[in-house]
What we know:
Elements: E1 2-6, H1 10-15, H2 28-54, E2 58-65, E3 68-76, E4 92-95, H3 98-111, H4 140-144, E5 150-153, E6 158-161, H5 173-187, H6 191-203, E7 245-247, H7 249-265, H8 269-275, E8 279-282, E9 287-289, E10 294-296, E11 303-310, E12 313-320, E13 325-331, H9 336-348
Amino acid sequence: MTHRTKTKSKFALFLLLGCFAGSAQLSAAERMVSLFEEVQAHFDRMVPELMEKYQVPAVAIAIVDANGPIYQAGFGYSDASRSRAVDETTLFEGASLGKPLFAHTVLHHASAASFDVQSPVADYLARPFMAEPEGMKISSSQLLSHSSGLAYSESAGRRYLAFSPGSQWQYSGLGFIVLQQVAEELWRGSLHELVSQTVTGPLGMESTSYLPPKNDALLLAEGHDRQGQRLQPTAWPSANAASSLHTSARDYGRFLSLVLREYISGENSRVAQMMDVQVEVDRARHLWWGLGWAISQEESQPMFLHWGSNPGYKSLAVGSLQQGIAMVVLTNGDNGLDIARSLVPIVFGKDYAFLGFYMLHPDD
């Protein structure tokens, strides 16, 4: 069962021209009129087939421009009894999609306070966050760009430096946990309060939280493993900026619209900061990292992206700064990124090299 919300954003739809081979022989005016129907037709055919192939019970999608939603749809059911059809309001674990949301919040507070993202985070903490002296040089920008070298040894039960801060890239959820501690201490608020003040509250993202829903738990899609078997929900003891985000396609689409709006308007430097390349990730994949977002610069077409991967949930957010559009795909299956990756060329018109990046092919 599929649900959609249509909007009147013809300008953004026009930016998608040329994405479909079947439209190549049409005039520009005809393509603009028919494009929205083509998106629907492609997704209506492909998504259910991909869901069956990869044993993913539920998928929610939002495509947006700077003004709001262009396309919103839900596919499948969020529960094993198939009693709750998915739509754009269905909640999923967005997992690491919470990292760009938190990064935006940090940069918002930094612009309104005496907080330098290039300064050592140790300057803002009452106690050291690791034993190694070189670790005290780690900056917020290095934590946001996964270039801090901060890692954790399960066998030794301690934090350590995998490399000198700023010298290379290595994905580190721990870095966001440390930065969350800094933000909560410095600005005297919980993670939920800080994000709500700056992003989710003003945008009306009422269902988005870094903890599972309390009053509307029935709206949370049930997670499934790679064989399509239901998984027990994750017990989140506390909010975690690195991995505990819960959100809907509609809500996260609102955040993506904000990112595009701020970038296009040029009135706010936060998004420009986020898109500023900090460290190389994979040159062959045209992939770098900014402050909170992964950045692709293939053929001088800047793209921003992030993925989410928790047990039973996989998600992907991708945006094109040149085309002025962005998409989020939320799923409740461990094979969900296989679906999300397949939809990117349909919307953005190209099979980008970053889609082959190893972290978009998790084997957990």
